[in-house]
């Protein structure tokens, strides 16, 4: 588990632009993973779970509530982007959530994040927004958009 948290933190540091203050610190990740309702996934550049000496290309972290699961973090390191790994990770999330009998996936995204087209192409649709939810390092406020995806 410690190794996996190292891998998550490594991708987190590379993937998330500090301007938007979306990245979690190690303590937040550790705390999230203490509970049985948290789930995560790691992938190498082939989209498989990385072996010991392989670099980690991407990850997600989610939390299940009653019949719903929230995607808390999704990241792919810049060196591995636009090769389908983000989509691969979302498909794994959807498959895992289905097995957990989840009915609906939820996530929150900063307005303007290019990830929106990925989410929409994977079946997510917007269900609401929180005005001025994010505060950037330069003091700019940005809305959060909530997306949902219904599972079979
Ligand atoms: C969002 C993110 C996970 C996408 O990872 P990825 O591996 O590059 O995604 P994919 O290669 O699977 O992209 C699939 C499709 O999504 C769309 N897409 C993904 N990134 C895009 C971008 N930056 N701009 C425009 N479209 C994009 C494209 O349609 C893409 O298909 P294409 O490459 O054939 O055009 C990655 O950019 C990332 O880690 N971003 C920073 C962290 C972040 O914002 N996470 C989401 C928080 S809500």
From TrEMBL:
Region forming the signal peptide? none
Superkingdom, natural source: Bacteria
Q: Which UniProt keywords apply?
A: Acyltransferase, Transferase
A UniProt-annotated Pfam family: Acetyltransf_1
| The keyword Transcription is assigned to this record | no
| Enzyme class, broadest EC rank | transferase
EC number(s) reported in the record:
2.3.1.-
Is-annotated flag, keyword Acyltransferase? yes
Per UniProt, what is one GO molecular function of this protein?
A: acyltransferase activity
Name recorded for this polypeptide: GNAT family N-acetyltransferase
What is the organism field in this record?
A: Novosphingobium mangrovi (ex Huang et al. 2023)
């Amino acid at each position: 588990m410690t190794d996996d948290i190292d891998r998550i933190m490594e991708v987190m540091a590379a993937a998330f632009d500090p301007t938007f203050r979306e990245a979690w610190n190690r303590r937040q990740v550790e705390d999230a993973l203490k509970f049985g309702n948290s789930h995560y996934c790691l992938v190498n550049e082939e989209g498989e779970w990385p072996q010991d000496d392989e670099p980690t290309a991407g990850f997600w972290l989610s939390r299940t509530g009653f019949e719903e699961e929230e995607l808390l973090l999704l990241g792919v390191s810049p060196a591995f982007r636009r090769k389908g790994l983000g989509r691969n990770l979302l498909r794994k999330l959807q498959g895992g959530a289905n097995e957990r009998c989840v009915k609906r996936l939820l996530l929150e995204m900063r307005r303007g994040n290019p990830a929106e087209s990925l989410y929409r192409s994977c079946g997510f649709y917007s269900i609401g927004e929180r005005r001025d939810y994010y505060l950037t390092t330069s003091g700019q406020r940005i809305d959060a958009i909530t997306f949902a995806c219904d599972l079979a």
